[in-house]
Amino acid sequence: MANVVIIDHPLVQHKLSIMRAKDTSTKSFRQLLREISHLLCYEATRDIKLTTKTIETPLTSMEAPIIEGKKLVFAPILRAGMGLLEGMLDLVPSARVAHIGLYRDPETLQPVEYYFKAPEDLNERVVILLDPMLATANSAIAAVDKLKQRGANDIRFVCLLAAPEGIAKFTATHPDVKVYTAARDSHLNDHGYIVPGLGDAGDRMYGTK
Ligand code: PRP
Ligand code: URA
């Protein structure tokens, strides 16, 4: 799994276990997702390039490190990706946002696109795709296809849970996109749900079931 980073930090794993439990409330689920996204953001931006800028401290001038290039772009896949976005913006408040509207047809498990709005200069920015769930990978693959069509050439993908089937398909289709996930679960069930998983992320975030 050369292109997959499993973020096994104890805080991430502890929070994830609470999120998986079926009795965890909608309010707690949302709060935990926001907290975990801080930790995932920290890992997924670890190798962002730095440059330096001359600043004056109260004592002297120095060459101080700052992030190189244009602002990052966070690209949540609606709906559930919005749960990761809030925490990412807590850490990188000046980032730009690309909204990708996709839902998974429950029969075919194929993604259906309904919205896309992104900054025009994606080719000049690091893009971080956000979706808590990598199941069949059909949604994430379609999202990356779309971002690449619009010029993005430096993309990474942050999720919370990934199925082995989804990881294999995604990394084979987009080998240039590194995947950051908190866990690699056992398998997909007959309905394309991750097992043991956490259920439907969007429904658990928004209390729609
Ligand atoms: C969920 C999830 C991913 C997708 C993952 O979204 O948030 O986008 O399924 O499945 P895949 O890897 O098999 O494509 P869903 O379609 O349920 O939409 P929602 O976020 O609006 O609930
Ligand atoms: N989407 C979800 O929200 N959960 C899964 O387990 C699979 C796809």
Short description:
By secondary structure, the chain is an alpha/beta fold. It has helices at residues 10-20, 26-44, 81-91, 138-149, 164-173, 201-206, and strands spanning 4-6, 50-56, 61-67, 73-78, 96-97, 99-104, 111-117, 127-130, 133-134, 155-158, 161-162, 178-181, 183-184, 187-188, 194-195. Strands 1, 4, 5, 6, 7, 8, 10 and 12 form an eight-stranded mixed β-sheet that branches. The protein has a three-stranded parallel β-sheet with strand order 9-11-13. The protein has a two-stranded antiparallel ribbon with strand order 2-3.
Report on this structure.
By secondary structure, the chain is of the alpha/beta class. It has a single domain (4-206), classed as Rossmann fold. The chain has six helices and 15 strands. Strands 1, 4, 5, 6, 7, 8, 10 and 12 form an eight-stranded mixed beta sheet that branches. Helix 2 packs across helix 3. The chain is globular, with a radius of gyration of 18 Å. The model has no long low-confidence stretch (mean pLDDT 97). The structure holds 1-O-pyrophosphono-5-O-phosphono-alpha-D-ribofuranose and uracil (URA).
